[in-house]
Structure to design on (167 residues):
């Protein structure tokens, strides 16, 4: 576990350095190695500059594994804490590990949420349910990420699989 965290920190500092070089902005010196998460000051700054924040539970517990009362508590407590810290309504939810069920969706719908995202790696279509929105991972390889955003990556993977099957 410790090695994983060290690896994540190094990877994070590398990504931050690369982005700051491209964006031509200076990042605070302590950002690279000490923390994996944002602090509230940084969250407020980002929130004031066009990045919106949603709730994701308090303990990153898999909601479908919890008694329903505990799942509700994870959802509401995380929403309220962010709302208190940023002074705005939090209306988006991200299911920890992408796990949810119909009870959880209904609870979100009835408790001030307007949408939720899972971990299904697809583009959002008009048919998508607003509480089951798919989401793409931001790949380190920017070209792969661009292909993914264009919707072509899934087509390319499908074509590759078909060609492989013919051989
Ligand atoms: Zn998570």
């Amino acid at each position: 576990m410790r090695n994983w965290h060290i690896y994540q920190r190094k990877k994070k500092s590398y990504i931050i350095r690369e982005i700051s070089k491209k964006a031509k902005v200076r990042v605070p010196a302590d950002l690279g190695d000490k923390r994996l998460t944002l602090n509230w000051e940084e969250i407020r700054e980002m929130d004031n500059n066009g990045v919106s924040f949603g709730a994701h539970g308090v303990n990153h517990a898999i909601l479908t594994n919890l008694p329903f009362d505990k799942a509700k508590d994870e959802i509401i407590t995380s929403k309220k804490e962010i709302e208190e810290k940023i002074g705005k309504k939090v209306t988006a939810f991200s299911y920890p590990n992408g796990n949810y069920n119909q009870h959880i969706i209904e609870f979100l719908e009835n408790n001030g949420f307007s949408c939720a995202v899972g971990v299904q790696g697809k583009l959002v279509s008009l048919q998508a349910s607003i509480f089951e929105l798919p989401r793409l991972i931001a790949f380190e390889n920017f070209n792969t990420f661009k292909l993914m955003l264009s919707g072509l990556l899934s087509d390319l993977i499908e074509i590759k699989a078909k060609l492989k099957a013919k051989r």
User: Anything to note?
Assistant: The chain has three domains: 1-36, 39-135, 138-167. The mean pLDDT is 89. The longest strand covers residues 92-94. Residues 48 and 86 are 9 Å apart (CA to CA).
